[in-house]
Amino acid sequence: MSLFSSRPPKVVSWRINTKCNFQCVYCFAETCVARATEMGHTIETYPTTLLKRLQGIFPADTIMHLSGGEPFLMKGFEEFVGVMSEHFILEIATNLSQDVSRFLQEVPSERVNVINASLHILEREKRQGSVEQFIERCLLLEASGFRVVVEYVCYPPLLRRLEQDVAALEAFDLEVEATQFQGTFQGKVYPEAYSSSDRALMTRFMETDSQEAVLAKNDNLNFMGCMCSAGLDTITIDPDGSVYRCIAYANRQRECLGNILTEKIELLDEPGACLVEECDCPFQGFLYADLRLRR
Ligand code: SF4
Ligand code: SF4
User: Fold this and answer.
1) Among 276, 282, 243, which residue's Cα sits nearest to residue 8?
2) Rounded to the nearest 5°, which phi and psi values hold at 228?
3) Residue whose CA is closest, atom 3 of ligand 2?
4) Which bound ligand lies closest to the C-alpha atom of 124?
5) Which end of the chain has fewer CB atoms < 10 Å from its terminal CB, N or C?
6) Nearest CA residue ID for atom 6, ligand 1
């Protein structure tokens, strides 16, 4: 019997921890990190029945997107992913600051869609040899059969070096994708404040339609009132196991839908109106919301 009140979601986005060893000025996880205490779950402290329970909840080959914080800082992360990969197709967002040799032993590449490796060049340049180490790890993962996409956050001071940095990465045959900065810089709110030339530059390094769509339409990330199937086709899980419709709802701890550790999960029966003033992860909004109703 399914634990869901409706059909199971196709994409599960799980922020498994809040801890991070970087201090990016534009940290996207800021709201989560600021409000959350480090919940300290590890592969040892999660109930041993959890993995079996998840297998009972989600159909085989459900996409599970793992992020944090920095997920590799979770103790036992490699073993955790290895076990998860028996049932889920994984996607992992990481700053690739940790050694990956254990990961390579534990995780079969064919069960991982993509590793989104965020470069965070300003943080890396504070640490000697860190950029070179990042490139080495990307190449090692690729040589072991993983698809790696290097994410480059277009923080406004970085725009003048974007082209050069991307060329340096592409010289190693790495796949690079520019992503928008969402936040405030020098009193201007981004992404709205990107100029048309900024946008033209960034679009050159955006490989996916969703990246370009977000940038093209992102002068307003307010989908309030739109019917959205987040909470039905996708869910977001927070480090304590709480389930929400999406990242924006999780950030605001709004309308918790249950907890994978303890309770039945009550998803939406049908798409429901978005009730938050800003879609914190606009990719989710563009994927799941009915934008014809967008304000
Ligand atoms: S690496 Fe990611 S989670 Fe860590 S500070 Fe930077 S943006 Fe935030
Ligand atoms: S539009 Fe965005 S914020 Fe609103 S429910 Fe959908 S995913 Fe969440």
Assistant:
1) 243
2) -135, 140
3) 279
4) 1
5) N
6) 24
Distance CA 140, CA 137 (A): 5
Q: Taking residues 251-279, report their average pLDDT.
A: 88
Ligand 2, atom 8: closest residue by C-alpha = 246
Atom of ligand 2 nearest to the CA of 246: 8
Q: Whole-model pTM?
A: 0.89
Q: What angle do CA 30, 287, 239 make, to 5 degrees?
A: 35
Q: What is the pLDDT of residues 84-124, one digit of tens each?
A: 999 999 999 999 999 999 999 999 999 999 999 999 999 99
The CA 266 to ligand 2 mean position distance, Å, reads 17
Question: Is there a contact between 13 and 230 (Cβ–Cβ < 8 Å)?
Answer: no
State in Å: Cα 96 to ligand 1 middle.
11
Gyration radius of the chain over CA positions = 19
Contact 22, 123 (CB under 8 A): yes
Pairing of strands 11-15, 148-154: unpaired
CA 230/CA 9 separation, integer angstroms? 9
In the reported structure, the alpha carbon of residue 15 is separated from the centroid of ligand 2 by a whole-number distance in angstroms of 17
Nearest ligand by distance to the CA of 244 = 2
Q: Give the 3-state secondary structure of 13-75.
A: EEECCCCCCCCCCCCCCHHHHHHCCCCCCCCCCCCCCHHHHHHHHCCCCCEEEEECCCHHHCC
